[in-house]
Amino acid sequence: MPKLKTRSGAKKRFQVKKSGKVKFGKAFGKHLFTHAKTPKNKRDHRGTGVLQDMDAKKVRQELFPYGAN
Question: I want to staple 22 with a disulfide (CB 3.0 to 4.6 A). Which of 11, 36, 41, 56 is the partner?
Fold first, then answer.
């Protein structure tokens, strides 16, 4: 049976920590800060976040067939 490949998009978007939590970069924070975003919206989309357990399990199983790192 051939080797399974890691999804290259997942490699770039997610980082699996040793605890099993999955870290990701938040959306909507790259440009257009001069208008159409409230201060709360700007704060909430800054930096990185951690996926919920259910979503993290899917990412680990489906996108990283042999585990991440």
Answer: 56
